[in-house]
Structure formats: C-alpha cells, structure tokens
Amino acid sequence: MTAAEIEVGDDSRELQGGDGATNEGLPHGIGDGRNDNMIFITIRRRTLILIILAIILVIAAACVVISMPRMRRAAHGAKPGVRLRDVDVGGLYQEEVRSVVLGLAGSVERMPREAIYYAETGDIISEEPGIVVDIDNTVKSVMAAPRGANVDLVTRQVTPAVTAAMLKAIYSVKTSEPAVALVFNVAWGEEWVPAILEILAESGVRTTFFITGTWAVKFPQMVQAMVASGHEIANHGYDHPHPEQLTEKELVTLIEKNETLLRELTGVRTRLFAPPYGEVNQRIASVAGRLGYATIMWTVDTIDWQRPDPAVIVERAERRLAGGNIILVHPTEPTAAALPTILKRLAEKGYKVVTVSRLLELGPPVHTR
C-alpha cells in the first residue's frame, strides 16, 4: 500500500466520523435538522402545559372567589333554611337579620292604651297593654336557630302609665304572703323622725314615708336621710289642704309641685300619693292616676295623731292583722315609743314589714276597706 492510499483511507474515516455516528466536519446546516425539530416540539409542549396550568389556576381562583361569600355566610350567617315569620333569613348576617326584624316589627307592635275615668258616668275603661318587639333578643334567637327552624318575633308587654287600679284608691293588697306595709304620713313631727329612723334601722325594716312639700322644704336633710336609709318616699301633696275642696287644676298642682321638690332633693320620682286628711273620691284618685300615681289609703289607722298611750297604738296596729294590710302611723312621741313593740309583735307572728311598692308587687290591689 502506497502512502497516497494511506492518506485517502484516513480521510474517508474522518469523513465517516470513524464509526459513522458523528457529523463532525460537515458544513453548517447539514445533518442537524431532526434535532432542531425535536427541540422545537418539546418547547411547544412545555408552553402548552404551562398555559393549561395557568388556565386551571385562574378557574380555581375564580371558583374560590365566587364561593368565599357563600362560605362566609355559612360560617357567620343564620343557618340555611331558617325562617322568621315566613321570611327566609338563612345565610343573612346579624345586621341583615336586624333589618328584617325592624321591618316586621311594625306589623305586631301596639302602643299601650291608658285606663280612662269618665266623671259624667263614673265608669272606668280598663287599660290595654302595649306590645313591643325585643329587637336584640329576636336577632339572637334567629342567629342561634338550627337549620330549617321557624322563628317568631320576641315580644314583651308594655304596661300603660295609667291603669284602672290607679284610678281607684287602694286600701290593701290581696296576697297570701305574710307581709304588711307600715306607712308614715309626715307633715309635722320632725322631732321624732330621727328616733323612728334609728328604730327602723335596728330592726332592719324598710317603710314608706308620705311627705308634704312644706315639711320637706324645712327639713331636707331628714328627707335625704330617709332615702339614704333605704326607705321609700312618696307624695303627700305639697301642702295639706282638703282635696275634696280643690279644683282639678289645683289637685294637679298639689301633686306635681311636691313631686318636683322631692325629686330635686332626692333624685327620686315619686309614684304613690296619699291625699291629705285621707280625703279621697273617684275624682281625686283619677286625677292622681292620670299623673301616673297610685292613690294609697290604709287598712288600719292607728289614729296616733291623737297621741294615745303607746299600748293603744300597738293594739290598733295589730287589729284585723292579715297579709296585704297597710298600717297608717305618724311621727309622734307615743308612736316612737310603740314602734319597737309593733315591729317585734309582727315578727313574732311571722309578718314581714315592707314598703308599699313592694306590697303592691305581691298581689292585686283591693279598692275597699
């Protein structure tokens, strides 16, 4: 083999890439087209997959966004299917439920109607309680209701300012409770009031003091001491005229002037009225009633203003003793002397002394002595 043949053989191997597997030495663009196509196809597949994934993510995000309010309502709103007076409130938030309640309230609410006294005939038309929707408790009831529940509006009665009972004088209370009220009418007797307050405090007893305005003006500290000791103060008129001789306008002044004074002295708005001299009729009681007062008389009068012996006062206080009695006394020397015995005897017989307002809570008022 000549040298020329050897060189040719080497060149042919170089051109074939030795084993025919390489394309080294070929001009640019010859032999690599298939690989380029494969790379391009791979890139296109990856891009397509990314686009599809992006579309899926967008759809998923949109679904989440759309479902979030529903999820929030399911978590924080009224349970599904809950109805309030046939109104579907399921899924509503608390404030939305409140708006629905307010809208429904007008269909059931009713203003109270006060009792009326007709002077011409003597007839009394009884009061009619009002109805008001308890907004807050209704909303709570709806929000706490289980799925599919039917809920009604929560309502409460409103007592009229003037009731039929207030248009008649009250002499006692019908009750099975062993309780009586001890009431002091105070238009004088200031020298005995401190001792009486001390005796009551020692016995742990609370009573009702009916006070005139003219007395309160002179002894404001004593009025305030009564309140500070836990006693009830009530209206005995600004001064002490004969109510039957007063016009309706004068009766109003008698009550309201004293009410204003006592409120300025104590901050208490009085609601009980004891007419001076115990003079009462339907007209007087109805005037007091229209002003928001119950007219209080008595079951037993100790007539202690005549200053009898203390033993007589004790005996009179126990006369016809029964639960619901109203026992009338005044701040006199014999009354102060009799008071410890009266309280002791009542306690021994199982009776508790309470204020008039408390006694009225124990049963219906009795309008005859």
Describe the 3D structure:
This protein has 369 residues and is α/β, with parallel strands linked by helices. It has two domains: 83-160, no CATH class; 165-366, Glycoside hydrolase/deacetylase (TIM Barrel). The protein contains twelve helices and 17 strands. Strands 9, 10, 11, 14, 15 and 16 form a six-stranded parallel sheet that branches. The chain has a three-stranded mixed sheet with strand order 2-1-6, with no helix packed on it. α3 (94-105) packs across α4 and α10 crosses α11 (333-348). The protein is elongated and about 135 Å long. The model is unreliable at 1-31 (pLDDT under 50).
Query: Average pLDDT value?
Result: 88
Please give the largest β-sheet. Answer: 6 strands, parallel
The protein's oligomeric status is single chain
Which ranges are low-confidence, i.e. pLDDT below 50, for 5 or more consecutive residues?
1-31
Order of helices and strands: HHEEHEEEHEEEEHEHHEHEHEEHEHEHE
CATH class category of the largest domain = Alpha Beta
With helices defined by DSSP (H or I, 4 residues minimum), what is the helix count? 12
Structural class: alpha/beta
* Beginning-to-end CA distance, first to last residue: 160 Å
CATH level 3 topology of the largest domain: TIM Barrel
Beta-strand proportion: 5-15%
Radius of gyration: 47 Å
